[in-house]
Amino acid sequence: MARFTTLVLGTAVLSVSSALPTDTTHHRSARAQAVVEAFKTSWEGYYTYAFPNDELKPVTNGFSNSRNGWGASAADALSTALIMGERTIVNQIISHIPNINWASTSTEVSLFETTIRYLGGMLAGYDLLTGPLADLADYQEDVDALLAQAINLANNLSYAFETPTGIPWNNLDFATRGNDGSENGLATVGTLILEWVRLADLTGNATYANLVEQAEGYLLHPSPPSSEPFPGLLGMNINVTTGLFTDARGGWIGGADSFYEYLIKMYIYNPSRYSPLKDRWITAAESSIQYLASNPVTRPDLTFLSMFENTTVEEKSQHLACFDGGNFILAGQVLGEQRYINFGLALVKGCHDTYTQTATGIGPETFAWDPANVPDNQTMFFQRAGFYITNPQYILRPEVMEGYYYAYRATGNSMYQDWAWDAFVAINATTRVGSGYSSINDVNVVGGGGFQDFQESFWFAEVLKYSYMIHADEAEWQVARDGNNAWVFNTEAHPVKVLDT
Ligand SMILES: *[C@@H]1O[C@H](CO)[C@@H](O)[C@H](O)[C@H]1NC(C)=O
Ligand SMILES: *[C@@H]1O[C@H](CO)[C@@H](O)[C@H](O)[C@H]1NC(C)=O
Ligand SMILES: *[C@@H]1O[C@H](CO)[C@@H](O)[C@H](O)[C@H]1NC(C)=O
Ligand SMILES: *[C@@H]1O[C@H](CO)[C@@H](O)[C@H](O)[C@H]1NC(C)=O
Ligand SMILES: *[C@@H]1O[C@H](CO)[C@@H](O)[C@H](O)[C@H]1NC(C)=O
Ligand SMILES: *[C@@H]1O[C@H](CO)[C@@H](O)[C@H](O)[C@H]1NC(C)=O
């Protein structure tokens, strides 16, 4: 949407604001502006061809509904549009929220995904629009509806906790109030507490907090003891009938990851109430430094965190796990512990190499550095890079960019802004297609080895937000250098206002 008129006078180029209300209220750096352009391109494609479905299929200009058809990309784009000051998009999204019928869906509902994307997106929108960005909403009733619909959504989901232990089912069938009867996971149980506690604090209905705290208790005091092979590091599967873990396999990987992330983030949200969770974060962090930190034999300058099964470590990791550096840095700032910051910066550097060593400049979905298992056709690559690729896709994941963001906020070192810019340029160059951006098949082939025709909703919530914020001006939601944060980002990068005390 053209909101500026460009006047060319001789050699001078002046941009003057038109009489229309402007989306941009302050000067932006060229890099920040380029990220906003990518956001607008993605949004225009989605809004034209997919809205109010969940995702855009940018190659074919189609849509998909992997998140129950409630408009996942809209919910996930809201807090990014707000932070970018994109007023038109903000109001397109918030005028849609009241129309969503949470009770109506033909597919299985994930308690975890619904919480981090929809509930987190609406609560962040509500916090920003009742706080520092109140002037971006055209209609107050749309702002009120964000909280009303968050309540409706939580009330639709809350039967998930009606199990013998209170540990919820994750996979729900709303039509029958059913569940899939399987075990639940460490991340899917342990990544509800920030959103549901915020909802409790905003509404005064303590039930939302009680439900998630009851479940969290089983993660803080895991049983049997064998499920905690290193102090603070846990298995990933829990029987919701017994409350017992059924394995001892894990790490800072998908399926476990954001449980550890939220331990320290809950302490930021409310330090007096969640001090015990901070202590568990420290226990997990110390074990990770002691037992999981790993330097590839061919590149001892790099640091990754291994996975484990029982007390056996496996030299394998994932793009998803690359949030770990940022989480150590954040905790180090909040706890005043430089050791955690330094360790986090080392992890960020390792993940940086997973990007810079590939043909596209984008990192793979999964990788490993076990010298005994290097595929024949990657021995040269392993020698040079220090890791080899075990799944070459890139599905528009944010964690490496997220790490750069925290590293920059902690150090003020512009090298991290350069790393973020290089990654953004690489992602833009290879995944930009048709009406938006798409997952690709192979980060180690120039051009990406083919498009999967899918634009994940977290592209809006996370990649574009962190890519923007690292170049953006100071704002109260930016992570604070001194560890005194006014906001804390949920695992989907939706900013939650910390509890007023
Ligand atoms: C589910 O959400 C809808 C709004 O989308 C609301 O009308 C309904 O009351 C909610 N159901 C429950 C059980 O709270
Ligand atoms: C508080 O939330 C619970 C859980 O969804 C709900 O059952 C209950 O009706 C709510 N209480 C009030 C007073 O709204
Ligand atoms: C969970 O434990 C109960 C009680 O021991 C058992 O009947 C059930 O099969 C277990 N569930 C799974 C998914 O293993
Ligand atoms: C881990 O321990 C469990 C239970 O003792 C066992 O079944 C499993 O084989 C062990 N795994 C490894 C890799 O040692
Ligand atoms: C390496 O070999 C595997 C298995 O044969 C194959 O799938 C993969 O495409 C090859 N990778 C490269 C970079 O040639
Ligand atoms: C992103 O890609 C588009 C389309 O190829 C291009 O016009 C734009 O300049 C690129 N942006 C950056 C920052 O590289």
UniProtKB/TrEMBL annotation:
> What domain of life is recorded for the organism?
Eukaryota
The record's annotation in InterPro entries points to:
6hp_glycosidase-like_sf (IPR012341), Glyco_hydro_47 (IPR001382), Glycosyl_Hydrolase_47 (IPR050749), Seven-hairpin_glycosidases (IPR036026)
This entry carries the following GO cellular component terms, namely: endoplasmic reticulum; membrane
Q: Which organism is it from?
A: Neocucurbitaria cava
What protein am I looking at? alpha-1,2-Mannosidase
Gene this chain is encoded by: mns1B
> Its family?
Belongs to the glycosyl hydrolase 47 family.
Lineage here is:
Eukaryota, Fungi, Dikarya, Ascomycota, Pezizomycotina
Q: Which UniProt keywords apply?
A: Calcium, Disulfide bond, Glycoprotein, Glycosidase, Hydrolase, Metal-binding, Signal
Signal peptide range equals 1-19
Q: Which reaction does it catalyse?
A: N(4)-(alpha-D-Man-(1->2)-alpha-D-Man-(1->2)-alpha-D-Man-(1->3)-[alpha-D-Man-(1->2)-alpha-D-Man-(1->3)-[alpha-D-Man-(1->2)-alpha-D-Man-(1->6)]-alpha-D-Man-(1->6)]-beta-D-Man-(1->4)-beta-D-GlcNAc-(1->4)-beta-D-GlcNAc)-L-asparaginyl-[protein] (N-glucan mannose isomer 9A1,2,3B1,2,3) + 4 H2O = N(4)-(alpha-D-Man-(1->3)-[alpha-D-Man-(1->3)-[alpha-D-Man-(1->6)]-alpha-D-Man-(1->6)]-beta-D-Man-(1->4)-beta-D-GlcNAc-(1->4)-beta-D-GlcNAc)-L-asparaginyl-[protein] (N-glucan mannose isomer 5A1,2) + 4 beta-D-mannose; N(4)-(alpha-D-Man-(1->2)-alpha-D-Man-(1->2)-alpha-D-Man-(1->3)-[alpha-D-Man-(1->3)-[alpha-D-Man-(1->2)-alpha-D-Man-(1->6)]-alpha-D-Man-(1->6)]-beta-D-Man-(1->4)-beta-D-GlcNAc-(1->4)-beta-D-GlcNAc)-L-asparaginyl-[protein] (N-glucan mannose isomer 8A1,2,3B1,3) + 3 H2O = N(4)-(alpha-D-Man-(1->3)-[alpha-D-Man-(1->3)-[alpha-D-Man-(1->6)]-alpha-D-Man-(1->6)]-beta-D-Man-(1->4)-beta-D-GlcNAc-(1->4)-beta-D-GlcNAc)-L-asparaginyl-[protein] (N-glucan mannose isomer 5A1,2) + 3 beta-D-mannose
First-tier enzyme category under EC: hydrolase
Does the entry feature the keyword Chloroplast, yes or no?
A: no
Any idea which positions bind Ca(2+)? 491
Q: What is its EC number?
A: 3.2.1.-
The cofactors named for this UniProt entry are:
Ca(2+)
Please give the Gene Ontology molecular function terms for this protein.
calcium ion binding; mannosyl-oligosaccharide 1,2-alpha-mannosidase activity
Which residues are named in the active-site annotation?
A: 113, 257, 365, 399
The cysteines covalently paired via disulfide bonds are 322-351
